[in-house]
Each structure stands twice: as structure tokens, then as C-alpha cells.
Amino acid sequence: MLALIIPIGLIILLFCYIHIQQMIWNCKNNIEPDTSSSIHTSMSVSTREIDFEEPIKPTILFIKDISQSIVKKEEGDSENLDVCVICIEKYKDGDKILSLNCNHSYHKECISPWIKKQIENNIKPKCPTCRTPIDYEWKIEVNEADNGVIV
User: Fold this and answer.
1) Which tens digits make up the pLDDT trace of 94-150?
2) Whether the Cβ atoms of residue 86 and residue 128 lie closer than 8 Å to each other
3) Dist. CA 16–CA 10, nearest whole Å
4) In angstroms, rounded to a whole number, what is the distance separating the alpha carbons of residues 27 and 114?
5) Are 16 and 9 a contacting pair, CB within 8 Å?
């Protein structure tokens, strides 16, 4: 008698295992369970669609507490303009200048790649002249109330 019970028990366990695996596969693939089987009357699996939205990744590099200005050359000021230490050129009329919180100024097109390169290399960006840390953050959008510049 025991010789018959063990094989029958193993067959029942195998059937249950296969059925549970099928239910798991149906759940993963979001397929409604087959209700024609008698086992579904005692076991019901809820398959509902869950939408997982990818979080929006910030793409705007925003430098905090930095000011941007445009050089306006006035009469008699032609020789007294500062020099950008990155490109070693004098500021000309109409150049966009970024002044860091340490009061050092650079062309925007010179300091922007400098800052981006440091961030890409996982280095905290610093002023090229005095090595004062530059505060930055990645943003999704920038408000007018934010004090800083988009690089």
C-alpha cells in the first residue's frame, strides 16, 4: 500500500508545482488566469496592470550663487578690461562673463566646459584661480527665483 501512496503523492506534487509555475508565468506576463481549471476556484490570482513610470532625470546643470553679465565697453576703458585666465584673452564688448562666488570672472564659453569636465570626472568643480568649490546641482527645470546660471 505504501508503495502506491508515494508515487501518487509525487504525481500530485508535480502537478501542483507545474500549475504554480504556470500561474507565476501568467502573472509576470500579465495574462489572465485560465478559469476552466477546477483549481482556480479555490485559488485566485489577481493580475492587475501596474504602470511604473521612469523618473525624469535632471538634465540641466545649474551653478548656484553665480552671476552672469555682459561686458559693456565704455569710453577710455579699452585698456583697463580684465583678462580671462582660462583663454588668456581680454574681455571684449559683448562677451558673456560669469563671476563665481569667489569674485573671479571668466568667459562663459571658457568656464562652462571647465566645470562640466570636472563633474564628468567625478571631481567637485573648483575655481581655476583660487580652487574655491563651485556649488552646482542637476535640475529638471529652473525657476526665475533660483539664484545662479545654467551651464
Assistant:
1) 899 998 888 899 999 999 998 889 888 988 999 999 999 988 888 888 777 677 787
2) yes
3) 10
4) 50
5) no
Strand pairing partners for 107?
Answer: 97
Joined grid coordinates for residue 6: 508515494
Find all residues with CB under 8 Å of 25, minimum gap 6, and list them.
Answer: 31
Contact 67, 146 (CB under 8 A): no
Do 134 and 100 meet the contact criterion of CB atoms below 8 Å apart? Answer: yes
Residue type present at position 148? G
Report d(CA 26, CA 46) in Å as an integer. Answer: 10
- C-beta neighbour count of 65 within 10 angstroms: 12
> Is the Cα torsion angle 71, 72, 78, 81 positive or negative in sign?
negative
